[in-house]
Design goal:
It comes from Bhargavaea ginsengi. This protein has three domains: 4-158, PH-domain like; 189-263; 279-361 and 416-517, no CATH class. Helix content is 47%, strand content 24%. The chain has helices at residues 9-32, 39-65, 103-106, 133-158, 189-198, 205-217, 223-234, 237-263, 303-308, 337-347, 362-370, 374-386, 396-417, 455-460, 484-495, 499-517, and strands spanning 4-5, 67-70, 74-79, 85-90, 94-101, 110-117, 125-132, 182-186, 267-270, 274-279, 284-290, 294-301, 310-317, 335-336, 358-359, 419-423, 426-431, 436-442, 446-452, 462-469, 475-483. Strand 9 and strand 10 form a beta hairpin. Helix 5 (189-198) packs across helix 8 and helix 12 (374-386) runs antiparallel to helix 13 (396-417). It starts with a strand and ends with a helix.
Length: 518
Amino acid sequence: MENRRMHPGRIILSLYELVKNSAIAFFFLFILRRGSDAGWVVAGRWIFIIAISISILNIFLSWWRTTYRLEADSVQIDSGVFSRKHRNVPFRRVQNVNRQVPAVLRLFGLTSLTLETGADGEDASVKFPAVTKAEAARIEKALDGYRRERMETAQEESGTENADGETPAAAVAEPFPEKVRTVHFTAQLKDVLKASFLSFSFIALIPVLATVYSNIDDFIDIESRAEGFLSFLAGSGVVLGITIALFALAAIAFGIIRTYLKYGRYEISSDDERIYIRRGVLTEQSLSVRKKNVQAVQITETPLKRLLGLAEAKIVTVGSFEDNLEDISSLYPFLPKRRAVELVGELLPDVRVLDGMERLPKAALTVRMLRFPWIAVIGTLALYFWRADFPYVPDWPFLAAALFAVIYLLRYFDYRNTRYAIRGPLVQFRKGGLWRETFISRREKVIEAAVSQSWLQKRFGVATVGTTNRAKPVHVEELKDLPAAAAEQFDRWYTDRNPELIRADEEVESWKILQNEL
């Protein structure tokens, strides 16, 4: 196939980012210091002009010199203005696919496409910063076509040949049907309103106003005016009440708008092979994850969510995400718990949340209470040497006693909430004091299982078990103070090899080899 360049909209996007990043320096040198003839100011202006000119020239040259080409099994990328760099990324290394449509690209009907791999550093992803939606679909189609071809080849190789060397008709791979997406969840207005209050997004108005106040104060002396305004408010209870009410309404409106821009048009869908998550209004973000790459599921319940019967389900997957996409692997953070559990089952039919989990023995509570309270001791020493004298604040001995009480109370709550279940191919851990977290994974997705026992645990007949799943970074889950018999059951559960687990181990070894190659 022929070499192609990014859409020219990439130039506009780069110019927009350049203007955004250099706006403060421009404002300071050419507006705030516009009447200054100081040598350092004049030199700064010339340096700024030269740097901007070089950056603009580099943007055009970089766009012109960057090309890519789709092969049958890989994507080839050539980049670099003076020092050329060639990258060959096989499709087999691509783990996740995500799209972002910033507001600037939306004006031109463009999108940004990223192919995430399991590598580190510069090789962690293959980015197409600005392409048409049709071109993005072509790239994804090439990726899917490669995987489909591999599946067809595997089917053909698994067929048996007759005496004439021909494959029987029954063994010939049937053509793959067209993928049909099923929409599992779409955010409604009530969901956005619920998210705006539970995420406390209205509090974000305070730092925004503080930033605006600080910037305005650099040009206009508003401190004296603000003092006069505050004196006016303090002198009238009615005006003060109205001002507080207006500020509260503004904060709520700000929080709703901010949440709507992030979670508006939120949609979770899937087909037989992939899970699709899309969100955002001005800046649209979408994620495509192969179900095969999902290693585990985490269900998190904060104290407020537990009080309201809500939960957040998050998938643990192979590969990595860009910094601003770390939280998109969450299946909407504000779902009713029952709906979150149902959604996990709909998206991943081979994973289900187990009921009737086992509790820890009373010996586990004894072990937890006997462990040395490092945090409480260090906090007590800090209170003793600091001895801050604040009004209405008790002396340090009372604060230290309260700290010890809180630590041991949290240990008790953690003991009460901790559960475990090992059934068939599934393992499920639940732990946490005020914050509760449930972890579910299949045996073939666990690349390492560990059982350990400290001196104290051995005395009371309990042990610690742990799992390791492929992710970036590697996901490690640990559950302390299980009965020794349950720890032995967990060890047998993992070491009882079967063909499915052996195939998974072979995939893990291939993945480790791939990591070393990268």
